[in-house]
Design goal:
This protein is mainly alpha-helical. It has 3 helices and no strands. The N and C termini lie far apart (108 Å).
Length: 110
């Protein structure tokens, strides 16, 4: 079938008025009441859920924000690990010098 044939078939179909009326009657009421002339919508910071305008842009922004948080936490972890290794090295050097001092005392006492 060509595109022209499909277009002619679609235009030849007449919508069923009964199905259209039932679809309108079944539609649920809006979740939020309509705004009156004096009412203002909630500010964004008080909204229950953030308003999403562009799904792809928001998804990319969320991914970048999450990646930045992950990288910064990893950097903090690296800094903490470096500090822990430095403390362990200092303890090791202190124990080593104490052991050498004890060995020297043992040699003198003989």
């Amino acid at each position: 079938m060509t595109t022209q044939d499909l277009l002619e078939r679609a235009l030849a179909l007449k919508p069923d008025p009964l199905a259209r009326a039932t679809a309108v009657a079944i539609s649920p009421a809006p979740a939020t009441p309509p705004l009156t002339a004096g009412a203002n919508p909630l500010p964004r910071w008080r909204a229950l859920a953030p308003r999403r305008g562009h799904a792809l842009r928001d998804a990319i922004a969320h991914w970048l924000k999450d990646t930045g948080r992950w990288l910064s936490a990893r950097f903090v972890r690296k800094a903490a690990d470096r500090a822990r290794v430095a403390r362990a090295n200092a303890r090791h050097r202190a124990l080593q010098s104490q052991f050498e001092a004890l060995e020297a005392l043992r040699e003198v006492a003989k």
